Each structure stands twice: as C-alpha cells, then as structure tokens.
Amino acid sequence: MNDDLRIQGAVFRGRPVRFQVDDQWIQSYEGETVAAALWACGIRHLRSSPVMAAPRGMFCYMGLCQECVVLIDGKRETSCSFPVSDGLRVSLLKTP
Amino acid sequence: MTGYDVIVIGAGPAGMAAATRAAELGAHTALIEQGPEPGGQVYRPLPSQFSAGGDAHPGDELREQLRSSTATVLAKHAVWNLADGYHVDVIGPQGTKRLQARTLILATGTYERFVPVQGWTLPGVIGLGAATVLIKSQQVLPGRNVVVAGAGPLLLLVAAMILEAGGRVAAFVDLNGVTDWTARLPTMLSRPDLIWQGSRWWSRLLRAGTPVFRRHVITCIEGENDVAGVQLARVDRNWRATHREARTIAADTVCMGNGLCPSTDMTRLLKLGHRFAPELGGWVPEVDENFRSEREGLYVVGDGAGVRGAAAAPLSGEIAALSAAHALERIDRDQLERARTPLVQDFRRASRFGLTMSGLTTVRAGLISDISSDTVVCRCEDITRGQIDDAVAAGCRDINQVKAATRCGMGPCQGKMCGDAATSILASQVGSHEQVGQLTARPPFRPVDTKALTGSFDYDDIVMAEHAPT
Questions:
Q1: The domain B2-111+261-358: what is its CATH number?
Q2: Which helix (H) or strand (E) holds B67?
Q3: pLDDT digits over B12-32, tens only?
Q4: Do the domains at B2-111+261-358 and B114-258 have one common CATH topology?
Q5: Option in B112, B225, B380 nearest A45 (CB)
Q6: What is the DSSP secondary structure assignment for residue B118, as one 8-state letter?
Q7: Is B213 helix (H, G, I), strand (E, B) or coil?
C-alpha cells in the first residue's frame, strides 16, 4: 500500500504542502486532513492500543472513535479532523 | 454569554433546515457545527481549497438556503456540555464559550453500528461511513482491493463509489439475501429515483465482475499490522455463521458497517425518556409529532430521533422549527397549521422509505452470539467479549455495571463505537435491552483540551479558599 490512493482527475486539490511524520516528509494538498493524507500514502498504523499495544489506525473518520489520535505540533489531535499545513510536525503514538 | 431564541446543534440536513426555517420565522438563531462547513456526514462538501468542475453537489440547496437566512453558523465549534436553561458549552478555534437559548433543537444525527469481529481493530479496517467521506470529501480511495461488508444501503453505495473511483472490490459481503431486499420492493417503489440509482450501482458491480456474497458475514479479518485478507462464511436462518462455504479472500482494506444508531449522548445527559425501537436504529428519545420532547423548548430532529434517512431529516427539522416559532410567539396557530400540514405528509412519505432501509440493518441475534470471546469489543480500553461475559457471570445485569466492572465504554469515545455491541451482548444474556439500559452520558461529549477550558493563568490568579475555623 505504498502508491498514492488519491483519486485522479475528479477535482483540483489545494496548494501542495509538505509536513513531517516522525522522520519522514509527506507530500499533501491544502484542504486534506492529516489522516487522509497519511492514508493516501499508505501510513495507516497510527498508534498502539493502551492495554494490548495492538496496532490501530483511523476508523470512523467522523471525529468520534479517537483511533486516529496522533501528536500534532505536540498536542493530541484527531487527525481525521485536523487540516494539513506546511511544516506541521506529526508524531505517531506507536509503542515499540 | 450570548443568548439566542433558538440554538440548533448539528448542521446535517435536519439541522440546516431547522435553523433556516427558525431564522426565516424571525427567531434569533444559531447553528453549531463541529465540522468546517455545514453538510453533516451525508452532505459533507469538498474542502474549500478543492474545486470541482461546476457540478452541483447534493446538499448545496440546503446550504444555500441556510447562507441566505439570518441564522448565525458557528462552524468548527464542538458542543462539549449542555445544561438546563439551556446552556450550551462550546469549544472552537477561539477557545470555549457558553451560549444560552430558550429553545434547543438537537440534530446530532447518528453514528455507525459495528458488530465486532476478530481483527476489526486492525489498521486498514474502516467504517462504511468513513469510506464515503474519504472518497467524496477527500477524494482518496479506501484501498486498491477492498472488501465491503455488513448490511444496509451504504454497502452498495460504498462499493459503487470505490469502483467509480478506480478501485477494485475484492468482495461484496451482504448480510441480507435477495429475498430480504425484494420483500422491501413495494415500499421502495415509492422512490423510483432511488431504485434507479440503486440499479445503476448494481450494474456497475456486475460490469466490474465483483464477487457478491449474499447472506454472508466476515468471520475474521487477517493481518499483522495491516489488513491482509478476510474469512467469510454463509449465515444460517438464525443469522449464525456456518462453516459451509467458508472461504478466505485476499484484500488490502475492509469497509464495514451494520447500519446507523441515533446519537443519544445529549438526550441521555438531559435525562429525556428513551424507548428501544430496533426499526429506528435502537434507543431513541421520546418526542411528539412536532419532535418536541417532554422538556419545554427541547426538540430532537433528524436521524438522531430515529433513523429515517436524509430525505425525511430536513422535513423533521422544519416541523420542529415551526413548532418552536409558535411557542416563541413568532407565528400564530393558523400559520403553524397551514405550514405544517404539507410538511407532515412529505415527512411520512419520506420516512417510509428510510425505515424500510434501516430495517435491513436491525441487529440479528445470531451475529451477537457469534462474537468470539477473544474479540475486542471496546476498542478504547481493549475489552474483549470474554471479559464482558465474565462480568455477566459475576452478576452484572445493567450496562453501567458492566462498564464499572470492565471499563467497557469508559474510554475516550465514551461508548460510541462499542455501546451498541456491548449492550446487545448483555441483553442477549439478561433478556432485553430495556432491562440492560443505556450507558450513562457524561460531559465532555468529546475529549477536550483541559488547557482550553482553564485558559492561561498565573499562580496569583488562583483563588485560595479561607481556612475553616479551628
């Protein structure tokens, strides 16, 4: 799942922006949410569950389930409702 | 504190229509929406930074009417608490504030119902609703090779959207069989436009050669850190998985969902009476024919009052707005009745279709029995079905006892993902949903940043209580 899942040809996206996820730079477009931008480039394992440390990622995409919570510029945010912008620093909440 | 005649919470079709109508009738109205723009889940628009060729989008008409009304739209504002009076605590880009209104119209819609299955917590498994928003609003495909599974009309919509956008549907897994659908044809004929739309989606699936499995369920989603595939099985007449015709299908993504549940966290917090109505999606608040609750000035409209679909929702919003305007003495009884009669007729017609569709998604007992004991039910707290069963064996009879004993439903989603499944598991052992009850709702409705609530302060700002006399 490494190729871009953005649907081509249907719309014009916003201005290209770049943001950082852990040590990696991600190409994105204004108007996208952090969760959708990560999903489009195949980053789906966003955090570990609290008890079993099981892999988790975006699930409801409506700001309800809290599964897509990551650190954005140091704050816990639901990435499905957080818009991308240039230079954003995202840290995944995976426990090793 | 800012005061209004009417505050509407939730800007889906019901909320947009309610706010527009209330404002048109002269009520000082505010509409609160957590998303960046009105539309709700069903009419979620493209982000403002995206542009499409001039195609009109569904929901544009409601949005346009709202825009040209005098209603104040507070987008990007989440309601985190409600209190008598009615006080509405919101958090938005500028922090928190408290609003006040004589009339409160709740239009908070639904969330998706999930029947937990082994592996449903893996990254790469998303809800059917999530898939629709990802595709239509973000223009991102859920996956390259996707299993679409569950029940209800969203199944077909999601499968067709994926194919339309260039993805592959690895399997279309419908809990219902052909007869479950055809039994509903007579009611469906009232909406030939939707039948036409549905048949277009079907022919899309057929042309693509999508493997279709009717009366089947996913029994397990396989993968280490991401989805690798699913196991399917046919269900018997009691909706239990059989091991006949079991098979494994490779896939990179799963979109699943078993219909919609009314979102009742606000009506529970306000202690409204509720009744369990499976045909309406589960627990629904008690409202009269004007969508007015037993509490003065409090209305519940749209799918949050019972799942009747996007055509019925705006009509219920308008009916409530008329009733509220009458109570606020903006219109007299004559004006109320004249405006109300045609709306009620349209609402009844639209509801019939919506109810027929939600009937396809009522929870079947066999599905609940089949949830295995090592399956995670509560995603937030990693609580398995086995732990819930243990709590029942130890004597828990009420869902809040199960919550206290296991932490199921106590996590940051506040039971929105597991509440329906956990209460169904308990009800299947105790006897009924009425005996088991609902999870108690508590503020905040969503996780809130404590710093945003307290604001910034210095040590000297802290008011110290005087010592008690010794």
A1: 3.50.50.60
A2: helix B60-67
A3: 999 999 999 999 999 999 999
A4: yes
A5: B225
A6: B
A7: strand
Q: Give contacts of B225 with chain A, Cβ < 8 Å.
A: 45, 55
Give tens-digit pLDDT for B124-182: 999 999 999 999 999 999 999 999 999 999 999 999 999 999 999 999 999 999 888 88
Rg (CA), chain B: 23
| pLDDT attached to residue A1 | 44
Q: Indicate the range of B302-306, B342-346, B446-450 predicted with least confidence.
A: B446-450
Cross-chain Cβ contact A55/B226 below 8 Å? yes
Q: Where are the beta strands (DSSP E) in B93-189?
A: 95-106, 110-112, 125-127, 145-150, 168-174
Is residue B216 within 8 Å of B173, Cβ to Cβ? yes
- Residue B16 in contact with residue B29, Cβ under 8 Å? no
Phi-psi region of B395 (alpha: psi -120 to 50; beta: other; left: phi over 0): left
Residues 6+ apart with CB under 8 A from B108: B9, B10, B263, B265, B266, B302, B304
From chain B, pick out residues whose CB is under 8 angstroms from the CB of A76. 447
Quick check: A32 and B138 CB within 8 A? yes
What is the H or E stretch that residue B221 is in?
Answer: strand B216-222
Task: Return the residue in A6, A17, A62 with the most chain B beta carbons within 10 A, the one to mutate for interface testing.
Answer: A62
Closest-CA residue of A relative to B225 is A55
Residues on chain A touching B380 (C-beta within 8 angstroms): 50, 66
Q: Which of A45, A54, A69 lies closest to B226 in CB terms? A: A45
Q: Do B128 and B256 touch, CB atoms closer than 8 A?
A: yes
Q: Tell me the shortest Cα–Cα distance from A14 to chain B, in angstroms.
A: 5
Superfamily designation of domain B371-436: BFD-like [2Fe-2S]-binding domain (1.10.10.1100)
Set of chain B residues whose Cβ sits within 8 Å of the Cβ of A56: 121, 123, 379
Residue partners of B193: CB distance under 8 A and separation at least 6: none
Q: Domain A16-91 is of which CATH architecture?
A: Roll (3.10)
In this predicted complex, what is the ipTM? 0.97
Burial B439-458 (b: 16+ CB within 10 A, else e): bebebebbbbeeeeeeeeee
Q: Does the structural domain B114-258 have CATH classification 3.40.50.2300?
A: no
Quick check: helix, strand or coil at residue A71?
strand
Percent of chain B residues topping a pLDDT of 70: 99
CB contact under 8 Å between B127 and A63, yes or no, is no
- Residue in A closest to B382 by C-alpha: A51
pLDDT of residue B74 exceeding 50: yes
Domain residue ranges of chain A, discontinuous segments joined by +: 16-91
